[in-house]
């Protein structure tokens, strides 16, 4: 580019900057004029007021202050509302919790011992039966015929035996008179023994036939509840059938098999070896309703390596039939009792770098941090082994903003949440911004009084009016 072209472009650039400056001045003048049209009683605009004007326009967000401040601009020492509870003293039971399943003390599948037609079913599905009660009858006629046949054969062989014994006596007398050979007498003696054997076999056949008649009546081997009938009346049943007739479960008493972690085994075995009865409680699936109370019956002899638990078996009387076979239950086994222990709400226990601790409210309504040693827990209570005394006041709600020495205000447990909910519904305000009086005159920044109009302001109004 030569010098002549440079001289031509330089005035054009200067005029472009001048136009931009004129537009900026015009925009500022229009803004000031619009400001005083909306606020006719305002003072002469200054740099600060213009900045404040644009700062207050919609879209320029100003964060509200969190609360009233003191003269030095710092938040006052306001007490924090908290809910508290007292630490108590009493006997605290130590429970071990486990998951278990209810099992019948005995479960029996009733089978027939003989083959035949099922003539009668003598039970109702789901009823309670006792040991020896009749359950079903099988057609007994084939077994009665076998019994009569065995008894007839027995009579025949007994008659043969009697006749052989008479002949033996006669042969012995003739042998003494040397009238017969000795071999004939010996043969007769062995014939008598043979008939005696036949008689014993016949008697066994009679007993077998009688036993078959007994087996034709199927009775309950245990006391318990019968289930759903597996075979209907009129069917031909066999002793080799896999399903059987019905299943009976003994539910009084009933057992619960549950598991505990292997870490609890030493304490459990120590109590088990003492010979004292260990109480066991069964709860429903939710763990709220107690179903039954029993005692520990047995401990398994090995730990399951896949789960790291050991099986235990408890027995319950189940008088009210609240426990049902294969029912899932939560088990609580009472292992021991802490005498005169300090008891605190679980909600008061906090955890940090120092371990477990609580906020204790002192007499001057300030809190102090107290490290504690937490013991076993049960429900919403826990035992404190060290660090806390009975009747001390503990913070159970509102611990979020607490520090050592924080001043607190004790309220009811449900009041704090109500106050927080009401505070959320109120619109945020800025108490540091003074409101304009009804007269529309500005306030003096020092004492809040209305500032008189200055001469400069009056002269400006006259100039503007003319």
From TrEMBL:
Residues 253-337 form the Multidrug resistance protein MdtA-like beta-barrel domain. Its main location: membrane. The keyword Nucleotide-binding does not apply. GO terms for molecular function: efflux transmembrane transporter activity. It is found in: Cell membrane. It comes from Candidatus Methylumidiphilus alinenensis. Residues 345-410 form the YknX-like C-terminal permuted SH3-like domain. This is Multidrug transporter subunit MdtA. Residues 457-466 have a biased composition (Basic residues). Residues 51-76, 412-466 are annotated as: Disordered. GO terms for cellular component: efflux pump complex. NCBIfam families: PRK11556.1 (NF008589), RND_mfp (TIGR01730).
């Amino acid at each position: 580019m030569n010098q002549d072209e440079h001289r031509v472009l330089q005035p054009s650039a200067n005029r472009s900057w001048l136009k931009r400056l004129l537009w900026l001045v015009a925009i500022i003048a229009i803004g000031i004029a619009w400001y005083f049209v909306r606020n006719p009683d305002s003072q002469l605009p200054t740099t600060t007021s213009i900045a404040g004007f644009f700062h207050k326009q919609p879209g320029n967000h100003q964060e509200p202050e969190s609360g009233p401040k003191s003269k030095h601009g710092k938040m006052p020492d306001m007490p924090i509302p908290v809910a508290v509870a007292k630490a108590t003293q009493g006997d605290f039971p130590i429970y071990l919790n486990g998951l278990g399943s209810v099992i019948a003390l005995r479960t029996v599948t009733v089978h027939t011992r003989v083959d035949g037609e099922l003539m009668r079913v003598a039970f109702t599905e789901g009823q309670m039966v006792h040991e020896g009660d009749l359950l079903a009858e099988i057609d007994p006629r084939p077994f009665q015929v076998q019994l009569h046949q065995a008894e007839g054969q027995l009579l025949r062989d007994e008659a043969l035996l009697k006749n052989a014994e008479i002949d033996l006596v006669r042969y012995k007398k003739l042998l003494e008179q040397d009238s017969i050979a000795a071999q004939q007498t010996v043969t007769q003696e062995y014939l008598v023994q043979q008939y005696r054997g036949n008689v014993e076999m016949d008697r066994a056949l009679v007993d077998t036939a009688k036993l078959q008649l007994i087996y034709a009546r199927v009775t309950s081997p245990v006391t318990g509840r019968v289930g759903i009938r597996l075979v209907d009346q009129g069917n031909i049943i066999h002793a080799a059938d896999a399903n059987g007739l019905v299943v009976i479960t003994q539910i009084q008493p009933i057992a619960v098999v549950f598991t505990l972690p292997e870490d609890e085994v030493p304490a459990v075995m120590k109590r088990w070896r003492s010979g004292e009865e260990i109480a066991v409680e069964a709860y429903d699936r939710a763990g709220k309703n107690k179903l039954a109370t029993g005692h520990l019956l047995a401990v398994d002899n090995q730990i399951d390596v896949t789960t790291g638990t050991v099986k235990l078996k408890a027995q319950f009387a189940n008088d009210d039939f609240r426990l049902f076979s294969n029912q899932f239950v939560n088990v609580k086994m009472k292992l021991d009792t802490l005498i005169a222990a300090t008891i605190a709400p679980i909600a008061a226990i906090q955890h940090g770098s120092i371990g477990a601790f609580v906020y204790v409210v002192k007499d001057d309504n300030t809190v102090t941090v107290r490290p504690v040693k937490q013991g076993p827990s049960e429900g919403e209570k826990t035992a404190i082994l060290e660090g806390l005394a009975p009747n001390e006041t503990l913070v159970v709600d509102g611990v979020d903003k607490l520090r050592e020495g924080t001043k607190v205000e004790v309220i009811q447990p449900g009041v704090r949440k109500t106050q927080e909910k009401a505070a959320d519904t109120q619109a945020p305000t800025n108490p540091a911004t003074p409101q304009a009086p009804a007269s529309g005159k500005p306030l003096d920044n020092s004492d809040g009084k209305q500032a008189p109009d200055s001469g400069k302001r009056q002269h400006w109004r006259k100039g503007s009016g003319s």
